[in-house]
Amino acid sequence: MKRELGIGRCGLACCLCSKNTYCTGCDSGECPGKEWCENRKCSIEKGVAHCYTCEEECKKGLLGKIKPYAFNLFIKRYGEEQLLDCLEANEKAGVVYHREGVNGDYDDFEEIEKLIAFIQTGRQL
Fold it and tell me: Taxonomically, which superkingdom (predicted)?
């Protein structure tokens, strides 16, 4: 885990991304998705560092997917450091962020609250 990369503007875990060997995050200007990422563009236009700091209830762009949406909701409830702590502990316990392509253990959910519980515990309840 490259904790220093933290959480992307959209809520995805740049710190665990399989592309982080060459990507240095949303704000570096090196992000491979910088031209098309709706969440990056929107947050820059609004002057906010992350979608989770925005007051609007939104499912724009990547927030239409359960993982980044749940990560944002988790941060709103518990803070970014708590999310990073949980992701790090889960990785050490064998939870996989990206298994094939961009899908991993955090993508196996249909209910947000179940995913949030998984983030906290590292196991499905």
Answer: Bacteria
Can you tell me the mean pLDDT for 4-26? 84
Contacts of 13 (CB under 8 A, 6+ apart): 7, 71, 83, 87, 97
Region 20-27: mean pLDDT is: 75
Q: From CA 24, how far away is CA 99, in angstroms rounded?
A: 20
Structural domain count, the chain: 1
| Residue 16 contacts residue 91 (beta carbons within 8 Å) | yes
Q: Which pair of structure tokens corresponds to residue 33?
A: 């998705």
CA distance 112 to 41: 25
Query: Is the Cβ–Cβ distance between 97 and 20 less than 8 Å?
Result: no
* pTM score, whole prediction: 0.91
Gap between the Cα atoms of 101 and 29, Å rounded: 22
